[in-house]
Amino acid sequence: MGGGHYEAPRVPTRQEMVDAKLPLHYRDTCAGLLIPLNECRRATLFLPWKCQDLRHAYEKCQYEEWKTRVELLKNEKWWAVAAAKTGWSCRLSRLAHC
């Protein structure tokens, strides 16, 4: 991790997530950081000043994933507008209503 580039953590297997009892809505690409964070929290009785490095790493991962989703949505919207302006999607789909 050099030069300010973000490197996504290893995604745990389904079995690892089941064993860690992660709820389904937390089983994303950042789950590899959440599992050790939750273990640390349980070991330190959820003291807020403990496990800060793990928490910050998890929050950074969540933020980077959010930025990725926003960028994908922007690209998707851009392609939809471009296709609507040029009629490109109609030529590809060959639908009668276009």
TrEMBL record:
Domain of life: Eukaryota
Main location: mitochondrion
GO cellular component, one term: mitochondrial intermembrane space
Signal peptide: none
Listed InterPro entries: NDUB7
UniProt entry keywords in alphabetical sequence: Disulfide bond, Electron transport, Membrane, Mitochondrion, Mitochondrion inner membrane, Respiratory chain, Transport
Keyword Transport: yes
Localization terms from the record: Mitochondrion inner membrane; Mitochondrion intermembrane space
Record's bilayer topology term: Peripheral membrane protein
Primary role: Accessory subunit of the mitochondrial membrane respiratory chain NADH dehydrogenase (Complex I), that is believed not to be involved in catalysis. Complex I functions in the transfer of electrons from NADH to the respiratory chain. The immediate electron acceptor for the enzyme is believed to be ubiquinone.
PANTHER family in the record: NADH DEHYDROGENASE [UBIQUINONE] 1 BETA SUBCOMPLEX SUBUNIT 7, NADH:UBIQUINONE OXIDOREDUCTASE B18-LIKE SUBUNIT
Family the entry assigns: Belongs to the complex I NDUFB7 subunit family.
Entry protein name: NADH dehydrogenase [ubiquinone] 1 beta subcomplex subunit 7
Organism of derivation: Phytophthora fragariae
Lineage, broadest ranks: Eukaryota, Sar, Stramenopiles, Oomycota, Peronosporomycetes
